[in-house]
C-alpha cells in the first residue's frame, strides 16, 4: 500500500507515538517533541528547516479555565500545515469550522485562518476583561463606605482578572513573533493575499498590545485604589479607638489618685457585692467587644 495522500491540515491533539509516526509518514516531516516547543531559545522555537517552517507558542492559553498555559507547535510547508497541541482550544475549533464557509487554497491560507482565529478570540477575551473592569470600578468608586472584607474580595477579583490578562498576553507574544517571522521570511509559496492578511493581523496585534497596556494600567489603578480604601477604613477604626482610649484616661488618672479609700462604701456591706463587682468587670469587657463586632471592625480580620 502506498503512502496516503496528505491533507492540507493535520491537527495533532496530545498525540501518542502511533499518531506521531502516522503524521510523519503522511507529511514526510519531523513531528516536534514537546521539549522542542517549550525551548526557551528563540532560535529553537522559530526556525526554518529546508522548505518547512517550525513555529511554536510556548505559553498558549486559549481558555479561561485557569489551567497552566500549554505549548503549541506549528509546522508549515507549501503543501501542508501540521499543528501540535496538548489542550482544548476554541481558536482551533473556530478555524476548523471556517472551512465550511471558506475553501482553503493552500497551507499558508490555513495558517492565516488559524492565526486570525487566535487573535480574534484573544481580542474578545480582552473585551471581556475590560467589561469586568468597568463593573469592578463601579463597585470600588461608590459613595457608600465599603468595609475591609468587601474590599478584600475586590482585590481577589482584581488578581483573577490580572491572571487572565497575563495568560492572554503570553499567547499574544508568541503569535506576534510567529507573524513577524513569517512575514520576514515570506516563502515563495505564500500568496500575496495571505501576506496582506498577515499584515492586517500584525497591525491588530500592535493595537491589542496598546489595549493590553491600558488594561494593565487600569488593573494597577484599581488595586492601588482598593488598598487606599482599606487603609482609610483602618485609619477610621484606629481614630475611633484612639478617641475611646483618650476619653478613658481622665477617669483612670482620678481613680489612681483617689483610689477607693472612702469611709462609707455601701458595696462593702452587700452580701453579693463581690460577685456583682466581678460581673460588672466582665460586662465592661464584653460590651466594647460586642460594640466592635456590631460596627464590623473585626469582620474578616
From TrEMBL:
InterPro entries: CorA_cytoplasmic_dom (IPR045861), CorA_TM1_TM2 (IPR045863), MgTranspt_CorA/ZnTranspt_ZntB (IPR002523). The chain crosses the membrane at residues 240-260, 272-292. One of its GO terms (molecular function) is magnesium ion binding. Pfam families: CorA (PF01544). Keywords: Cell inner membrane, Cell membrane, Ion transport, Magnesium, Membrane, Transmembrane, Transmembrane helix, Transport, Zinc. Signal peptide: none annotated. It is a multi-pass membrane protein. It catalyses: Mg(2+)(in) = Mg(2+)(out). The keyword Zinc applies. GO terms for cellular component: plasma membrane. It is found in: Cell membrane. Mediates influx of magnesium ions. Alternates between open and closed states. Activated by low cytoplasmic Mg(2+) levels. Inactive when cytoplasmic Mg(2+) levels are high. Belongs to the CorA metal ion transporter (MIT) (TC 1.A.35) family. This is Magnesium transporter. It comes from Luteibacter rhizovicinus DSM 16549.
Amino acid at each position: 500500500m502506498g503512502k496516503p495522500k496528505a491533507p492540507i491540515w493535520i491537527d495533532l491533539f496530545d498525540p501518542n507515538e502511533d499518531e506521531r509516526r502516522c503524521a510523519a509518514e503522511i507529511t514526510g516531516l519531523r513531528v516536534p517533541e514537546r521539549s522542542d516547543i517549550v525551548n526557551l531559545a528563540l532560535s529553537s522555537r522559530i526556525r526554518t528547516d529546508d522548505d518547512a517552517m517550525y513555529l511554536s507558542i510556548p505559553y498558549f492559553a486559549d481558555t479561561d479555565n485557569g489551567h497552566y498555559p500549554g505549548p503549541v507547535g506549528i509546522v508549515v510547508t507549501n503543501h501542508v500545515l501540521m499543528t501540535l497541541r496538548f489542550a482544548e482550544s476554541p481558536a482551533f475549533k473556530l478555524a476548523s469550522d471556517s472551512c465550511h464557509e471558506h475553501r482553503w487554497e493552500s497551507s499558508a491560507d490555513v495558517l492565516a485562518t488559524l492565526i486570525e482565529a487566535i487573535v480574534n478570540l484573544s481580542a474578545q477575551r480582552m473585551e471581556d476583561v475590560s467589561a469586568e473592569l468597568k463593573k469592578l470600578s463601579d463597585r470600588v468608586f461608590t459613595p457608600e463606605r465599603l468595609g475591609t472584607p468587601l474590599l478584600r474580595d475586590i482585590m481577589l477579583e482584581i488578581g483573577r482578572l490580572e491572571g487572565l490578562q497575563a495568560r492572554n498576553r503570553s499567547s499574544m507574544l508568541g503569535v506576534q513573533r510567529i507573524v513577524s517571522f513569517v512575514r520576514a521570511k515570506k516563502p515563495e509559496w505564500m500568496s500575496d493575499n495571505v501576506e496582506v492578511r498577515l499584515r492586517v493581523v500584525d497591525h491588530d496585534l500592535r493595537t491589542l498590545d496598546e489595549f493590553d497596556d491600558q488594561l494593565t494600567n487600569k488593573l494597577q489603578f484599581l488595586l492601588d485604589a482598593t488598598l487606599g480604601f482599606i487603609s482609610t477604613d483602618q485609619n477610621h477604626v484606629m481614630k475611633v479607638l484612639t478617641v475611646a482610649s483618650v476619653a478613658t484616661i481622665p477617669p483612670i488618672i482620678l481613680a489612681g489618685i483617689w483610689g477607693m479609700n472612702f469611709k462609707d462604701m455601701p458595696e462593702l456591706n452587700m452580701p453579693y457585692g463581690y460577685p456583682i463587682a466581678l460581673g460588672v468587670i466582665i460586662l465592661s469587657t464584653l460590651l466594647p467587644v460586642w460594640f466592635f463586632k456590631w460596627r464590623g471592625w473585626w469582620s474578616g480580620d
